[in-house]
UniProtKB/TrEMBL annotation, chains A, B, C, D, E, F, G:
SUPFAM superfamilies: Mechanosensitive channel protein MscS (YggB), C-terminal domain, Mechanosensitive channel protein MscS (YggB), transmembrane region, Sm-like ribonucleoproteins
Mechanosensitive ion channel MscS domain: residues covered: 111-176
Family: Belongs to the MscS (TC 1.A.23) family.
Record flagged with keyword Cytoplasm: no
Compartments where found: Cell membrane
Stored InterPro entries: LSM_dom_sf (IPR010920), MS_channel_1st (IPR049142), MS_channel_C (IPR049278), MscS_beta-dom_sf (IPR023408), MscS_channel_2nd (IPR006685), MscS_channel_C_sf (IPR011066), MscS_channel_TM-2 (IPR011014), YbiO_bact (IPR045276)
GO molecular function: mechanosensitive monoatomic ion channel activity
Residue span(s) of domain Mechanosensitive ion channel transmembrane helices 2/3: 69-110
Keyword Zinc-finger: no
Protein name: Small conductance mechanosensitive channel
Gene3D superfamilies: 1.10.287.1260, 2.30.30.60, 3.30.70.100
Source organism per UniProt: Salimicrobium halophilum
Record's function text: May play a role in resistance to osmotic downshock.
Length: 282, 282, 282, 282, 282, 282, 282
């Protein structure tokens, strides 16, 4: 066969193309086998893990979807690269080009990856659950959603905070277990500490029957000697999220009990010395 | 054919050039096919996503344009590199040169990429919408525009803040749902807490009928025992952006109600002790 | 031909040199074509963009010059590298050497690149214009010049700040639109809030006719209950840069109106209790 | 054998495949031998180390599991790569592809690796044990769990802090050895320092018999000359975690002893000078 | 020729060495030509630039020396590498070794490079000149020397600050143009604002004739309503570095004028309420 | 020999294997020689250095162990890599794989390396020794152990701080040489400065005989003119760790001497002006 | 010669080994020549530089030792690498292995390199000399030693600070040139500013003869109008390190001069208004 005076040997061309086609076919088959098997394996693994860690079905699904997505894209990327390699198109330039672009992207996208990696563990480990009261990345409030990239926290003032997961360095979860109720009361220097502690302990004892208390409040003692008062501390353990209401009730009860017992919560004190008039020059 | 005493064999030259031309042709055709298909696929994908996430048409368009731009430039870059490779010009040096330049650029341009990547998700996820009142990257105000590189926020003092998207780490959106109205009132140590709470609850009850309130204000109790006053807290949920007006109205109503009931909002107190004149040396 | 007993075959040498010369020629021609075309394309592009974005001719020129410079140097660098490659001087060592030097430079020069990249967008996007009052990178004042590497800001105390563009992360532009005029006035606990608000609103109404006001000042209500006063807020929108003068005038007018109406702006208050002499030990 | 007019030489194919199969077999055998030996070696090493460092069996197990996991995955990864290399599938593209993905991952996952590396040493070195009272990464409280990725600390207010191990830079362990009990008492300028120190030393001596004290409290002397008082310091060493209770008891005892001895804990003092009436303009 | 029973063919050796020598010669000649041309070109360029930017001859010289040094060392480095390559010593190992060392150095030396790069622009752009009063990198004072690596600033307390150029991020130059003279004066609530402003304006008018003033001082109005005074602001523009002396003179003049006019600069005020004796318990 | 119809030539195989075996043997011998020599050399070097720097034998041992460990592992790693290279197993993939893993590790483990590098110098340079009182990395206290990875510091409150060596940036060692004893005493405005200084110098002179003082305390003069007192400073040099006890003794002695001399340590002063009753509106 | 049935041709082996030996010899000779020449050159260069910069012989020696050490180790490293390359041991794996280790080291050791690089310039540039009073890296005191890795600073409280050179970013050297003596004195509102300035100037004039003053102290004028006093500033230049003693003497002299002239240094002032009794409810 001659084109433009050049001879083409058909059988040579065929014998060059056929093995390539075979290789392509092999690759496609290999990947067609690997993909579903991999996906299955991932699903299985995540589900086992989810069951063991007692995760909600929603979370397990999210984790599965994420893992299978990452797996699929990686597989696809490798398939394309290997196909190009097989078809004998020199993929060096392509890879080099992709490398330069990739470097630029990597710099910019590392935050994204960091979000997803942290998100993966947030979902997996139950550090944070919807309706928990948490402090994460400097934002405090009730968790509304734990996403793979962002966690939504509803602040107590009504603001909705979108917190990128990578900012969630340490998690302070205020909804795990009993909370502390703590009231510091300053009494005057002139009042008897023993008497004041007795009155306060009586109030505390009354609250011990309150079912919101898990560990009855008790008077600890003299917490500090302030510049105008002796500070006495009362401490207890309450049901979760009841600590504020309990503290408010205790403050009211203590104030009333002290009033009754005639014990003073002192105002700031100052001793004044006088020096007649200042200078004659006035 | 002889030039400068050197023989050139035309047919050899032709047989060297033709396959190159064929390869170039093949590449051009390949890319001519890939580009519109890729663009279509992107458009489709973004539109489906936009519909699912309920994005405005404007946003969908911006996202489409961005994605297609990135796709086109990447494709073009790869096409050029591969063409040069085909034409047998050694692209090693070119790539190495580009690599050095690229590294320098990458260091400088990573901010740009980070802006665009963050901008992409800002547009996609509706964390921030025009006319929302938000706090992002330390700037607070009303969103005027969400761009692919910069978000414009109008501060309450009239200043227009241009916030690069990469600075938008956590988004605090104050326009999603009801807001809290909170008023703390200090009453004097001498007044009855019960009576004061009754008066305050009456004011709160009057406001419950106010339609700006979503969850009627209520008196919570004794928030703290201050150095000169007992602080009582009133809390409610209002319609979004009504919280400030509501708080102002409540403060006025409470002040007037307390005046009427003869309950004092106390000034700072101090107990003074005296010690005659200070030293005879004066 | 024999030199030092070594034979040189001239025709061989010629046949080795000629193709190299041809390649060099081709490269030079290619670049001679690419450079002006590229420059033209850039000029065109920038000018179209400038027209669309309504940039001043000066800015468009600066951007053009920058882009063409970068393009020219990149082209020159690639040309040299490719020429060396063609002339068969092994450029491996050269590139490796350049790589090591380049790495050191890149670390040091990234600030420079970051300045220029940010500068490019500052010029392009009109975030900042000469004579705007802005706060950028912690420096506030009037913009005197927006350069490709540095922005000059004249502080209000007369200092000239040279701000490297990379430090300009978020731009707060105080010269875009109306500005807020805000006056907080504390009235005494003993005065009637209603009466005070009436007096203040009368002052505000008088200012509504002032043409510097875009949105007449109005009394908002009780902003806070301070320790010694009730704070009332008055708010309006003024022409840009008139906010300070307007606020000064309002403060004077309000003070005079309150004096006239006999309403007090209270000093800090304190309640004093006495406890005879302190101890006999004195 | 002819397929599509192409001849295949069976024996050639066989002679091409057999050595490959042999190599694969060799690799598999090698790894089958290396894995259990490596695991055993690791187990042995960790156990010896654990015994020497007196670690709890739980910790030793955790460390073993971690080390064997890392070892297994690394081995598996290398096996796959080498198998692919043997089967003559060009793994260049695959590795390059993996490299780009890997770079992106590495940026995002470095936190994870840093967590595990720090966690490894936390487990190994007994800096922190369950039920210790520690301050790590800005969070203080009782350790509830030391994990390979996260350490759980229960704050004294009931909050459960999840602290990623990489944030644990310096560990302050408050449960190792005796703790300091320190009480600063201010006495008035008019009281004799000697007398006050005698009274305080008497209180301290009484506490020396308290078994919670490891090193009896002693009066150190005049710690500072304050603006209204002379501050005297009392210092001792107590059993771990008893320091707060002891300090509270000492404060109460000291207050009562000083009252008895008629020594004053002074309020802030001020000397007042008077200047008749201020200006006639009033 | 035989050595140790091995034959050496002299002519072969010669024919191997001669071309190498020729290449070395060529390289040396090339560099001998490039170096002076490059140096000349740099000198020319810097001098043109210096003339255009109106730089002092000293600065131009420093810049020239720096540029030629960098150029020479880079050239020398490349020459050595290429010579080694020519002489057929495999420079791979050498480069690899240099690469590892280089990386370590680069990490440590980047500060040095950053200093020099910043220094280059500091010298070129006249942001800072000797005897300017500047604030750079947190250090304020009079510039004593602008070097290529370090800038020396003499603080007003006599300290000599050596500021590495890389720390000079933003430059605040206080010696470019007129400076602001600003005096805030608080008058008492009881005094007439109009009258006080008249007296102050009279003082300001007297200063308008002072030649140190570029823009006569004027009374702006009521800057703020303080807790005990009404603050009035006077503002003007003075010659550079005269602002402090001018402000001192104005303060003295204003104090004397107000005294004369019988207008009070008020001390802090406090309203005292009394509540008989505190409790009977005393 | 035929297997599956394939011929194997035994002598060919042998002639392929023998040189490999020889190479392996050579490598093993080389390393068997290098390891003990290297270890010896290191031991020698460290010991010489230790002797010169006067290090304790324990430290020298720790440093030796560290250096020999690092040396051994590096040698082992290189041996394995070279053996694999010799046996003709293509180590490219292995190295590439290790490279990707290594990169991830390097990011995570750099802290570890930084700890050990800093620890090495801490041990070598005697900046910190057991029982020194130091401030390192924000933790202050007595050093209990200087380790290769962590330094243990016992805080004065009994807490044991584990400080990773990399956090030890600057070391403040309070146990090297004499310490300063400094007492600032405020005297009243009405007392004679000369007289007060005389009294204070007398106290200081008495302390000069105290052997805890290395450089007798002296009265420096008027350190500042405070708002209510004239502050006079007394300064001396004491034996290490005696400074606090000495200062306490001096404060007591000074207070008593001033009392005797009738010189006042003044309380805060305030001048009060009065303005009859505030407004008629009360 | 036959071993295991394999033939070895001795002459072939010899002819393979001899050129290698020659190359090794050549390398050794080359390095034997380069090392002393390089060392000499370095010594010369440093000494010339030291002489020009007027460095002490000790510093020059330290710099020489450092430079020659770095040069020697680099040379040795390259020699080993090249020898291995010559002996035909494939150094690829070795280098790759070293590369991975090197990367890990580089991350950890960059601080060390940064210390040495900064130390080099500290020694070279005389920014800091032994016995200078400096503030570096947040530590202030007298320099005791400038080392290549660490600078020792003796704080005024006796603490010895070891400051790694890399922390020395900006150097504030307080021992270069005259220091400022500055005294601010507040006089009462009722005193005549003119008269007070006259008295102060008289004191200043007396100090002008004090030889510790380089630029006689002068009264500058009214520095600020404080809330209770008029602040007048006196400024002068003293010999280095005499500033504190001079200021102390001036404060004493001024206080005495003002007392004599009957001019008051006022205490804080407050105007008190009274409002009968607070509420009837008491």
């Amino acid at each position: 066969m001659e084109i433009f005076g050049l001879e083409f040997n058909l059988s040579e061309i065929v014998s060059a193309i056929v093995p390539v086609l075979l290789q392509v076919l092999l690759l496609l088959i290999a990947f067609a086998i690997i993909k579903p098997i991999g996906s299955k394996a991932i699903t299985k693994m995540i589900e086992t893990m989810g069951a063991k860690k007692n995760l909600s079905p929603g979370r397990t699904k999210t984790l599965e979807k994420l893992c299978i997505n990452v797996f699929s894209y990686a597989l696809l990327f490798i398939l394309i690269v290997m196909l190009l390699g097989t078809v004998n198109i020199d993929i060096g330039p392509l890879l080099a080009g992709a490398g330069i672009i990739g470097l630029a992207i990597a710099f910019g996208a590392q935050n994204l990856v960091a979000d997803v990696v942290t998100g993966f563990f947030l979902l997996l480990e139950r550090q944070v659950e919807v309706d928990d009261y948490v402090t994460v990345g400097g934002y405090g409030g009730i968790v509304e959603e734990v996403g793979i990239r962002t966690t939504k926290v509803r602040g107590f003032d009504g603001t909705l905070h979108f917190v990128p997961n990578r900012l969630i360095e340490g998690v302070s979860n205020h909804s795990r277990g009993n909370m502390r109720a703590l009231v510091d009361i300053g009494i005057s220097y002139d009042d008897s500490i023993d008497e004041a502690m007795k009155v306060l302990q009586e109030v505390a004892d009354r609250f011990k029957e309150d079912e919101r208390f898990k560990e009855g409040p008790d008077v600890l003692g003299v917490q500090s000697i302030g510049s105008s008062d002796i500070v006495i501390r009362i401490l207890g353990q309450t049901k979760n999220m009841e600590q504020w209401a309990v503290e408010r009730d205790m403050r009211k009860a203590i104030k009333e009990a002290l009033d009754e017992a005639g014990i003073d919560i002192p105002f700031p004190h100052q001793v004044n010395l006088y020096k007649g008039e200042a200078k004659e020059t006035v």
